[in-house]
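--- STAGE predict ---
source: upstream dedup step, 1 unique chain passed
mode: sequence only
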Amino acid sequence: MKIQDYLNKPYTTTVRSVTDESGTYWVASILEFDGCYTTGETRQEALENITEAEEGWLEARIANKLPIPEPSGLETEYSGKFNVRIPKELH
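--- STAGE serialize ---
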């Protein structure tokens, strides 16, 4: 598979602000890619930087013939039901 094929998959990107002794900045990361994160002075900058970090992470994994995880599937289609019976006092 080529890098572009992976970049087109729906991986989970998170962005959060961090405040520490150096000030406030933004951290973006790819949930499924351990260690793939970047920072930016703004939310937008962090999001722009994560694309470059993602490409580098994928290039390294492919070059070293390491497995690349699939997207987490947070938008899973469910195929069954789960029923729970509880006493009337609880509902």
